Structures are given as structure tokens and as C-alpha cells.
Amino acid sequence: MSQDSQASGLGPQASRLKGRVIYEGSASGQVLKCDVPVGFLGHLEPETGIYKERGHPLDGVSIKDRVLVFPKGKGSTVGSYILYGLKKAGNAPAAMVMAECDTIVAVGALISEIPTVDRVDLSVIENEHMVRVEGGSVVVERLPPA
Fold first, then answer.
1. Beta partners for 27?
2. Which of 10, 13, 43, 121 suits a disulfide with 53, CB 3.0-4.6 Å?
3. What local confidence, expressed as pLDDT, does residue 142 receive?
4. Active-site residue, from 2, 8, 26, 76
5. Cα–Cα distance between 146 and 105 in angstroms, integer?
6. Is 80 a catalytic residue?
7. pLDDT in tens, the chain (146 residues)
């Protein structure tokens, strides 16, 4: 993973991170960041896109159209099909950015055609950022204060 901003022609409010492509594509959206692993089976409802796990930082939050930023997945292999169900229902994340992609999330990204990148330094990305995923690049743009 590498980071670059001024040298790449990006403005002072943007950074470009490099990672490994899990599923190539282009997508953008507001960040939904979680610093703990994310489970799919039993925690994400395809019909709503709402994450439900008592005590989890994402409990009660919709992942729909957000760039989901998390360290890694957890749980059952059926989680791949939960991602697919989210995509079919129109409630999937726009993209996923991770520190380490496991096979469950990788298969889910592939069958759901969700742009996904791992081996990214997540400490640079925060919830108030907009992110654009383009192949192995993750462009992080800081939103102006409200």
C-alpha cells in the first residue's frame, strides 16, 4: 500500500491510496468506516441493507451505496451470498475497502460485482470522507466542514 497526494495532481484535500484489487471496478460514495471485523450472515439484511449486531459500531446503520471500510470480514461462508442478496435487492455498498480481504468477502465481491480493494491503510480514511475506488486506487477526498 502506498499513499500520494500532491505528486499525483490531486488537490490538498485528497489522497490516493494503492491496494490490491479483489474485484475491479469504479465506484464512489461517502465512507462508512468500522474499525472491527464485519459479519454478513445474520447481521446484514438484504431487504434493508441495515447492519444488526448488538454492541457492534454499525448496529442499526445502512450500508447501502456507501463505501464500506473495514479491517476484515468474519463469519460463515454464506456471507458471500448475503452480499449477493444485498446487490440484487439494491442495498449493497457501492464499494468495499479493507485491510485484509478473506475468501468469504472476496467471493461475495466477485459474484456481486462490488468494486473491492484490500491492503489499504485504513487509518487515512474517516467517515467524513468521500472515496472513489478506481481499480487498485482509492482516492480519499476530505469533505469541507459543514
1. 133
2. 43
3. 79
4. 76
5. 34
6. no
7. 444 443 344 555 788 999 999 999 999 999 999 999 999 999 999 999 999 999 999 999 999 999 999 999 998 899 999 999 999 999 999 999 999 999 999 999 999 999 999 999 999 999 989 999 998 999 999 776 66
Nearest to 130 by CA among 48, 56, 28, 5: 28
Residue keyed to cell 475491479: 24
Amino acid identity, position 46: P
Q: Where are the domains of the chain?
A: 3-142
Using DSSP's 3-state secondary structure scheme, residue 2 falls into coil
Distance CA 102, CA 124 (A): 21
Secondary-structure class of domain 3-142 per CATH? alpha beta
Q: Are strands 20-23 and 3-4 parallel, antiparallel or unpaired?
A: unpaired
59 near 21, Cβ under 8 Å?
no
145: its cell numbers: 466542514
Q: In this structure, what are the phi and psi dihedrals at residue 117, rounded to the nearest 5 degrees?
A: -135, 140
Contact 15/124 with Cβ under 8 angstroms?
yes
CA angle 55, 63, 72 (to 5 degrees): 65
